[in-house]
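Writing this down once: the sequence line spells out the residues, with the fold written below as integer tokens. This is how one looks:
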Amino acid sequence: MEQYIIETNIQVMFLVAPKFPDDIPNTYTKLEQAISDKTERRYFGFSQPNKEGVIQYKACAEMFNESEAQKYGLEKMTIKAGQFASVFIKTS
């Protein structure tokens, strides 16, 4: 893993993977299918333990405007600027 610095807050819309880590690929597929606007955008994965200590993984897509999450029926959040442990995955 590498340390990655996000310089500014990023608004994202997301889906939660039902089971970590098994459902991560399917969750990204569902996220991409939900977003009908095929404009190129950045995708992120965000994971942290929930209140019960179970890892919750969010498959996230960058938002271009405030109404996108509601338009696509997705939840939204802000990835705050800071330092993160990361793995860069390039897709074709």
Notes: The domain at 2-86 is CATH 3.30.70 (Alpha-Beta Plaits). The chain has a mean pLDDT of 92. Strands lie at 2-6, 10-16, 43-49, 55-62, 75-79, 82-86.
